[in-house]
Every structure is written in structure tokens, then in C-alpha cells.
């Protein structure tokens, strides 16, 4: 877990974000309270906007007060690490509800959330974009220090070359499908 206390370019914490994190966990009575309080504070402070763009840094998302799921995860991770809670980035999918209920704008797209380590319990998932702990509908693909390490697919540009990636994932409870 101590490895996940390190900052990266995407999870660096500035003084404003550090103060935000300290304020968010002031009433925490247990170590489990800290990530719960942080998730709620991030969810309330930063407007979720579904986005297909690569996530930005925690500092940039915190300043903008809006971002995609990966941006909110970076803010949560930076805040958690600043109050000595190990945290890591998770990439994956959120399964749609089988009853046809309304879902988050990017529920079928690749998304990001965070996991925090709590002694005695292990890694627990926190999704500040929907202000919920990870549940059976979250399908984890990869974990890392930040989005750059957990991205399941990254493309390196080359000179005079064209690139194209067409991938689709259908994620639903109780069935596995793959399209490419």
C-alpha cells in the first residue's frame, strides 16, 4: 500500500487541494471514514461531466470544478494521498442496469474510479463521479498509480502514419460479451 502514497504528474496535490482534503476528513472517527468523507467532498465540489477525453491532472480538475470520471478519480487520489490514505486509479466499465433504468451519461464507456487502502479491510473502491462505493456493476480492467498506468489501451503517434482504433464493450450484469 505504501507505493500508492506516491505522487505522479496526474495526482500531484497543490496547497488548495491539500487544504480541501484536510477539511474533508476533519470529522473522521475511523480510517474507513476518511475515504468515504473524501468521496462525498469530491463529488460535491466537482461537477461530473461525461467525457471521452483523456483525464487531466487532479490540480487542473480541482481548479476547473468539473471533469469526467477519471478526473474526479485523480482528485480523490491526490486528496487521499495528502492525508496519508494509500489510493490507486482503476480503469473499467460500469454495467448498465438490466431493468432499463436511466444511467450515468458514460455508463457504457471506459471510465475511471479509485480504490483506497484501509488497514484490516484492504482495497475498497470509491467512485466519486456517482458518489458510490464500488459494487458488482463495476468491472475492473486495471489498477495503477494514475490513468496513464491503468489505461487498457494507449496509442503512440508516429510520423506520417494514420491510426484508428474501433473498439466496443458491452457490459451487463450476468452475461459476458465482446465486440471488436
Provide a quick synopsis of the model.
The chain is an alpha+beta fold and 180 residues long.
Describe the structure.
The chain has 180 residues and is an alpha+beta fold. It is 27% helix and 22% strand. Helix 1 crosses helix 4, helix 2 packs across helix 4 and helix 3 crosses helix 4.
Count of DSSP strands: 9
Rg is 16 Å
**Class by helix and strand content?**
alpha+beta
Percent of residues in helices: 25-40%
Shape summary: globular
Q: Please, what is the oligomeric state?
A: single chain
Question: Strands of the biggest beta sheet: in what spatial order?
Answer: 6-5-4-3-7
Cα end-to-end separation: 35 Å
List SSEs in N-to-C order: HHEHEHEEEEEHEE
**Main β sheet profile:** 5 strands, antiparallel
Average pLDDT number? 84
Strand content: 15-25%
In terms of per-residue confidence, which ranges show pLDDT below 50 for 5 or more consecutive residues?
98-108
**Helix tally?**
5
List keywords for this structure.
180 residues, alpha+beta, 5-stranded antiparallel sheet, two-stranded parallel ribbon, 9 strands, 22% strand, globular
